[in-house]
Amino acid sequence: MNRAPQANPSSPPPGSETESRCQLLVLGAGPGGYTAAFRAADLGLEVILVERFPTLGGVCLNVGCIPSKALLQAAQVIDDVDQFARHGLSFGKLALDLPKLVAYKDGIVSKLTGGLKQLAKQRKVRVLQGVGTFSGAHTLSVHSEAGTHTVHFEQAIIAAGSQPVRPDIFPWEDRRMMDSTDALRLPEVPGRLLVVGGGIIGLEMACVYDALGSRVSVVELQPELIPGADRDLLKPLERRIKGRYENIYLKTRVTAAKATPEGIEVHFEGDKAPATACFDRVLVAVGRSPNGLRINAEAAGVKVDERGFIAVDRQGRTNVAHIFAIGDIVGQPMLAHKAAHEGKIAAEVAAGHKAFFDARAIPSVAYTHPEIAWTGLTENQAKEQGIAYTKGVFPWAASARALTQGGESGHTKLLFDPQGRVIGAGIVGPHAGELIGEANLALEMGADAQDLGLTIHPHPTLCETLGFAAEVAEGTVTDILAPKR
Ligand code: NAD
User: Fold this and answer.
1) Is the distance from the beta carbon of residue 60 to the nearest atom of ligand 1 less than 6 Å?
2) 287 lines ligand 1 (CB under 6 A)
3) pLDDT in tens, 215-264
4) Kind of pairing, strands 147-158 and 372-376?
5) pLDDT at 483
6) DSSP string for residues in 292-316
7) DSSP conformation class of 448
8) Nearest-CA residue for atom 12 of ligand 1
9) Which H or E run includes 216?
10) Residue pLDDT, tens place only, 471-481
């Protein structure tokens, strides 16, 4: 095998060149793929990274986590200004310059994608732009306008991700229909917006469009929003949005939708389903489906299930020993930080290291207002699976820092096993997504309530609520009256 370094590390394949060779091929340059490629290069492997889009970073960076956070930050500013109007600070009516806001969001994305391009170049990771499909156990075809380029690889990591589910009951040919990618482009602020799917994407985008002035309705199939999250964490969010959104329909299904000159006409079904209604735009966020069936994996002998998922072992290996898979394509939760973690492991194993997926918990964050974050065991799971636990809950109404940030409806909850070790945590309130990091570290380190309670947290902060929640469990809390044990 030719292991000579490639001449031009991050350019598309020149038309004249139809073949390349590498030790490790990575298919897909999202957070999983680029992490795997960079780690493998750092460990000395010659890496080719194949990506269909012109920029690195995948869905998360280009059309997912990052642009949505930019817009949620804008929504936060609007909410903060609204809140402080009640406390003596008024700035007048919102003047929205949509193109400028879009440019701010796009600017953040390009800074980050530019950074990744640079990092790939510095590591001599060769990036090939095109759609990759397997053509054999050691070959991948990269299709682009320049033609078809064949990559011969010794090992491969599949990191081809997922895409939004687009049920065919919707008139997708109409420009007023949006999936999450369309919604993040922020084409306009519609008067009346229907969000189909009360999961994390639906509720984050609802938060943005509500702050910008749309009248938002959310329709969710299940009896609760963000199915799976503990009810107590959802309550502060529900209370807030019930007062702001036009409607929230639970246990309701959209059965049909039609484009009319007035808007998208939507039919609902369910015990409390509303009558047919018309919306200026409809955002569909009913989940994502893995891309396993789009990469001709069978040519490499890699098994893909009927939904498009690829099964892997704890080292990320598929049924074909020299081919690994990571990220959304190997299963839930479809989260960037899970993909990146798996990417490092697969790269290390490919480089001959003894690495395994050994994380105890994968945190989840809904960057809604208020934010909701959880990690490890949830109370829902504990009850369903009959797992014994105790808990400590600290209400943010007793946190000075939370009061200054409009977070009095929040709380911090820690779950402990019978030995007192942290096995789960849930937080709702401003910056919950930042705070869950400490709980996750506690869980990984096998910390118990005393460890957290005896850690000196700075005062006044939101992070001290983790110490207080541990003290509640210990019965040593002084900032509230200790609940009877
Ligand atoms: P999801 O699966 O989390 O939520 C989709 C929701 O739509 C579910 O609550 C489901 O019950 C509902 N639904 C399905 N069909 C429906 C129908 N016909 N009518 C009404 N409701 C229906 O999916 P998502 O919100 O699209 O997110 C996709 C993935 O991306 C998830 O894995 C999510 O965790 C991930 N994601 C994470 C973040 C984050 O970490 N902040 C942000 C965005 C997305």
Assistant:
1) no
2) yes
3) 999 999 999 999 999 999 999 999 999 999 999 999 999 999 999 999 99
4) unpaired
5) 78
6) GGGTTGGGGT----TTS-----TT-
7) B
8) 197
9) strand 215-219
10) 999 999 999 99
How many angstroms does the Cα of residue 203 sit away from the middle of ligand 1? 9
Cis peptide before 187 (omega within 30 of 0): no
Q: What is the pLDDT of residues 305-362, one digit of tens each?
A: 999 999 999 999 999 999 999 999 999 999 999 999 999 999 999 999 999 999 999 9
Structure letter (DSSP) for residue 276: P
**Average pLDDT for 130-145:** 98
Residues in the chain: 485
Residue type for 413, please? K
Q: What is the largest CA-CA distance in the chain?
A: 77
CB distance 193 to 281 below 8 Å: yes
Residue 303 has pLDDT above 60, yes or no: yes
Q: How many CA atoms lie within 13 A of 349 on its CB side?
A: 24
Q: Exposed, middle or buried: residue 222 (CB in 10 Å: 0-12, 13-18, 19+)?
A: middle
Q: Of 166, 233, 218, 187, give the one whose Cα is nearest residue 71.
A: 187
Q: Where would I find the beta strands (DSSP E) of 251-302? A: 253-260, 263-269, 277-279, 281-284, 288-290
* pTM of the full structure: 0.94
Q: What does the block give as tokens for 164?
A: 């939004």
Mind giving me the DSSP string for 96-154?
--HHHHHHHHHHHHHHHHHHHHHHHHHTTPEEEESEEEEEETTEEEEEETTEEEEEEEE
- Compute φ and ψ for 339, nearest 5 degrees: -60, -45
Q: Is the CB of 74 under 6 A from ligand 1?
A: no
For residue 412, report the distance from its CA to the centre of ligand 1, in Å: 24
The closest alpha carbon to 55, from 12, 2, 7, belongs to: 12
pLDDT at residue 484, as a whole number: 75
d(CA 87, CA 213): 22
